[in-house]
Structure formats: structure tokens, C-alpha cells
Please model this.
Amino acid sequence: MTGTSEHQKLERSIVSKDKLSSITRDEGGIELSVVMPCLNEAKSIGKCVAEALEASASLGLKSEVVICDNGSEDASVEIAKNAGARVVHQPIRGYGSAYLKGIEEAKGKYIVIADSDGTYDFKEIKKFLDPLKSGFDFVIGSRLKGQIRKGAMPFLHRYVGVPILTGMLNLISGTRLSDAHCGMRSFSKEAYQRMKLRTPGMEFASEMILGAARAKLKIAEIPIDYYPREGESKLRTLRDGWRHLRFILVYSPTLLFLVPGVLFLASGLVLLVALLAGPLRFAGFFMDIHYMVLGSLLAIVGFQVINLGVFAKAFAVTQGLVPEDRLIHKLNLLFSLERGLIAGLLTLLLGLGLLVFILLRWIVGGFNFGGDVLIRPALFGMSFAVLGAQMVFGSFFLSLLQAEKRHERYHQAD
Model:
């Protein structure tokens, strides 16, 4: 179907030019901006623009529809303009990039965002504005609490992807949403500026939730219907799911890295120390060398996870993804490359010292270990040697991140 025929089909549903001009002619008094990203949505863009304009007109609002074109190669731009939208262009591809540009260009006090692929009903705009006018700062739809039409959402998205990612976002942000990735949302322009969003890809949806929570915005969730999209989907399940997950992990390393890391490390060290002298019984379990091997594994993995958490936190602060919190502030006060190297070298020497001692005993004993007498200190020494090496190299890497942050602060002050 060509862009021209699509436009003719939708002509009867589009607001008349006289009515449209009365809505949008006074740019200085625009109350509502409906912003949609667009990439080759010729099959649905005209209907979406028409519905948004009609819904705004029925509320008596001075409004505009802003379409941010992300490089369409079909008739999407022409159809959107003919339907009454203002089109802006963002050559940098990406869901977040399109929204960042479109919202920046929006002139309204209130902003409603949604996809332009026919999956959302723009006649529901009033439901997204009423909470804002009653004191809420941010409104998000819930497809899971509304009606998901047949064929609108794949099984894995509905019952696996959306619930898991929503649960993780709720856990680290303190929100209680049922559908954190619903694409239809509303907020005031002032609230948007407080969220300080910047990600260019699909993770923009996750960043908005975390940004709203970080800015302590008052959030409302409303049930909405969700429809099958028109045209080809740009969503790639594994790729886009990973982008969301990756952003969440970087955004909140304390909960997702440091907490389990500390638990692993503490459990591992307890097993290593408790079993160093020999086997023991605990709560009806006979614990011997195999539990010591488990302790070594837990200690090494736990410390590595802690390292990753500290690195992720420092990187997120350096890149401006999250503000500097108490953890990073204390780390900056306590940590120095020299202190990290001293702690790492002492731990490394403790481990290597035990291993050298075992080597000498082995040589003196005629190259005979004599049962498991030396296996226990060998496990203990090996574990501490690995932990010490991780401390040394981790200290260098963390020092580089701190140096980058100091360099950034120096130029800001300058």
C-alpha cells in the first residue's frame, strides 16, 4: 500500500484543517505535546496522529503531535505531516535517541509518549492527563492489568521477559509497577528534566523508570489496552532484552553485585578457616575436604563479583548514569592505589607463603604428601593467592576510573 492511498484511507478520520489550526496555531500556549518515534510506520502513523489530535481536541486543549523520524525510508514523514503532525528528524538511530530529540522539541507543559505502530490507543490520552493534573508527576500504562489483544504480545514477553525485568526494576528502584516496559506514558516537562535521561537505545524505557524513582517523582500506573502492531516489528527479543538487563546491572550494582558477592565471600572464608585444621561435624553434616573446595570456590567467585560491583558502580558514576552515593563517596575517601596494592600484596604473600611452605615440606618428605595433611593448607594458600592477585590488579583498574573522574571534575571546575 502506498503512502498516498494510506493517506486517502485515513482522510475521514483526520481533524479538519480549520479545527487543527485552532489547536496548534498558538505555540506559546501549547498545553499538551504527544510525542511518537517513527521508523517506517507508514501503515499506522496517520491513524495514530489523527487519534491523538482528535483526543486532544475533545479535551479542549491546545496541543501538538510531534513525530521524531528516525530515518524512515517509506512515506511515514509525508503521511504524518498531512495528518497534522510536526515532524522533527533524528539521524542517530535508536528508540531512546528518537525520544530524546522528540521530547526536547516538544512545547507542551504535559507530554504523552507512545509508539506510532498502532499498539496503543491514543483516545486514552485523558487517562494519562488526569493524574498529572491531580498531583502526579509521571504516569505509566499497564498492559498486564488491561486487555492484551490476541497477537499483540508474544508469550515469552508477557509471562517471562516483562515480569522479570519489571521485578528487577521494582527491586532496585523501590517502585511497585506491574508493567515497567509499557510504552505509553505521560509526565510534565518539569518532571522530564528532573529525570535527566540520556540512553539512546531500548533501555531508555528502563532508564525512565529509574530516573523517575531517583528524582522522587510521584508515579501513577493505569490499566490500558494493547493492540497488535501494524507493519514490521523493530523489537529484537534477545538483543533488546539484554540492553535492558545490562542497563539495570550497571545502574544498581550494589544490590545485584555487592550483596551476593559479600555473602559468597563470607561463606567461603568461613569454610576455608573452619576446615583448615581438619574435618568437623555441623548440624548433622560431616564436612571434610570437599566442603573446603566449595569454600575456595565461593570465596574467589564472591570477591570477583564484589570487584565487578565496585567497578560497575564507579563506571556508572564516571559516565553520569547515576549520582555519587555514600558508597562511592566513602570508597573515594578510603581507597588509594597504594592502600589497595599493600592489601593485595599482603594477601598474595600469605597465600604464596603457605604454598612455598608446602613445597618445601614435599621436598623434605621425599616428594610424598602423606595423605591430605598438606592439601588443606594448599587450598587455603591457593585461595588467598588468587584473592591477593585480584586485589592488586583490581586496584590498578579502580585507580584508573578514579583518575578519569578527577580529570572530569577538574575540567568542570576550569
User: Anything to note?
Assistant: The beta strands are 32-38, 63-69, 86-89, 110-113, 138-142, 185-188, 219-223, 280-282, 285-287. DSSP finds 15 helices and nine strands in the chain. The longest helix spans residues 375-413.
